[in-house]
Write a structure and sequence with these properties.
4 helices; mainly alpha; 108 residues
Length: 108
């Protein structure tokens, strides 16, 4: 419990100190999501079902692609699978989803 408390305090201080870079990173994450969604418009129809599938794939693709970088580095170094793969994907997904929800503009 003490380690978790110290970790959240240290991470909070780091986020406060590096806020411009954190904001830029979140903007890049949302822009990548939008780019994937726009690229998938060519594959899926414009109907409601096509939009839902396109948005779902865009929401899932970015965390998986981002997590592949440390996974491949770990595999190249240790020649075994990364032990916290699912947790890493979930963490990236939560950050991405939070940023998208905060910046969501409903269609008019």
């Amino acid at each position: 419990m003490l380690k978790n408390s110290i970790a959240i305090v240290v991470l909070s201080v780091l986020v406060i100190l590096f806020m411009p870079w954190v904001q830029q990173g979140l903007t890049l994450l949302v822009d990548a999501h939008d780019w994937v969604g726009d690229a998938l418009k060519q594959v899926f129809s414009v109907g409601e079902a096509g939009n839902v599938i396109r948005q779902l794939l865009a929401l899932l693709a970015i965390p998986i692609l981002i997590s592949l970088v440390p996974l491949l580095i770990y595999w190249l170094a240790k020649h075994s699978w990364f032990p916290w793969t699912a947790q890493l994907i979930w963490m990236i997904w939560l950050v991405q989803t939070s940023a998208i929800v905060l910046l969501y503009a409903s269609p008019k």
